[in-house]
User: What shape does this take?
Amino acid sequence: MCQKHWPAYHISRNKDSSNTDSHSCISLRTTWHCIHKVTRGCAGSLEYYTEKSRVKSQMELYKCPFEGDIYNTTNAIQRPPAHPPDPECIYNGKGAYKHCGLFGDPHLRTFDHKCQTCKIEGAWPLVNNKHLIVMVTNKRVGLDSSATATSLLTVMIKRNDKCGSTNVITYVTHERSLPNAFDGGATHYGPGKEIELKEKQRNKIKCNLIQRKTRQTEYFVRLSVSSNLKAEKK
Assistant: This one.
């Protein structure tokens, strides 16, 4: 990914550049040009699109033109190569998908393809294994109704000092909301991004999780809202 600050102040002059550009604008514009150069290689990366949006917002905030002087990045300080990741953290097993669906009051289809229906308020665990916990919170859909609906989904990835984090990693979704990052703002954890939010669509986010030479697991968190939700609440 492009560096945010360029230590080499050698300016590559463009034809219509302004001599009054501040160093802040030149740094932002240099980063913006670099981001566009790596678009093809970063397609599908949530971190890439987050950084692209952040730089664009900063340029608009400070009224920096998109065309103008940029720093000569060939003179930028090169970082030393990173240490190779631990073999336990890059193990890639054979993939197999299982589906667990939750909808309605709630109606639950388990990983064993069993269907359950119940009315429940408050928080309860949907998944709880040695790697993560998925907590579901239900609330009543109306004051005069005993029916419930899921209002909150919390994913807690357990501590893994070698391949993840020394603390529990938390991702929380609310009604009509799928955040772009874990709680705390990070989009990945681990020396080789073993735990990473890979991509986001309108109502789905994908989390890649590799855990200690057991298997590679991808978790998809999907949030679907009825088009008649407002009418139903009334």
Remarks:
- Confidence is low (pLDDT under 50) at residues 3-20, 211-216, 223-234.
- Residues 11-75 form one domain.
- The longest strand covers residues 148-157.
